[in-house]
Design a protein that fits this description.
- There is one protein chain.
- This protein has eight helices and ten strands.
- Helix 1 runs parallel beside helix 5.
- With 204 residues, the chain is of the alpha/beta class.
- The protein has an eight-stranded mixed sheet, sandwiched between helices. Strands 6-7 form a two-stranded antiparallel ribbon.
- Keywords: Oxidoreductase.
- Pfam families: F420_oxidored (PF03807).
- This is Dinucleotide-binding enzyme.
């Protein structure tokens, strides 16, 4: 599967590296345009290419948002992600380290509202980039990455990618309730858990 990654900061570039290492193809997009991504594309080799955000959406089956949450609305024309799996890996902050006040709504609820034709899955947002870079190939128990969404097939697709990366997919439920668990201020945010620990927490 070819995966688009919009946002190539520390977390987005880390995801690109481990996806390519796991045998996936990636299309990268960032705020400064494809030319600025030349060094990263060169590093990743023939499995990577760069594009503008809408082009990345058109060329991929699955798209991961790794931009600041405030940049998500209007980032893509809604038709660009029609019927595509859209992974919301953003985090909504209202200040340094403080979760944004969204009036009780989940940040992924808003993403789904802005892109109503997409199959939105909240995932890949809870782990620090330094952990993400190495934990999937480390020895010992697999760490969990969480998935929340209302489309079962979309969650299965994302879970398959998580497994390819060497992590354990753990389903936290529907997009609203499961997404709130993962976002800043939620109990699963920035909390590395093994698969067993995550499943025990979910079932408690």
């Amino acid at each position: 599967m070819r995966t688009g990654i919009i946002g190539t900061g520390r977390i987005g570039s880390t995801l690109a590296r481990i996806l390519v290492a796991a045998g996936h193809q990636v299309v990268l997009a960032g705020a400064r345009g494809p030319r600025a991504l030349g060094p990263l594309v060169t590093e990743l080799g023939t499995a990577a290419s760069a594009a503008h955000p809408a082009e990345a959406a058109a060329r991929t089956e699955l798209l991961v948002l790794m931009v600041p949450f405030g940049a998500v609305r209007g980032l893509l024309p809604p038709h660009a992600v029609q019927d595509k799996v859209l992974v919301d890996a953003t985090n909504a902050f209202g200040g340094p380290g403080a979760p944004a006040d969204l009036g009780g709504r989940g940040s992924s609820d808003l993403v789904a509202e802005w892109y109503p034709g997409a199959q939105v899955v909240k995932s890949l947002n809870t782990m620090h980039f330094e952990t993400l870079a190495v934990a999937g190939t480390a020895s010992g128990d697999r760490l969990a990455h969480f998935t929340a969404g209302d489309d079962v097939k979309a969650k299965e697709i994302v879970a398959g990618i998580i497994t390819d990366l060497g992590f354990a997919p753990v389903d936290t439920g529907p997009l609203h309730s499961g997404g709130i668990l993962q976002q800043p201020g939620g109990p699963l945010f920035n909390r590395p858990l093994t698969e067993a620990q995550a499943l025990a927490w979910i079932s408690h």
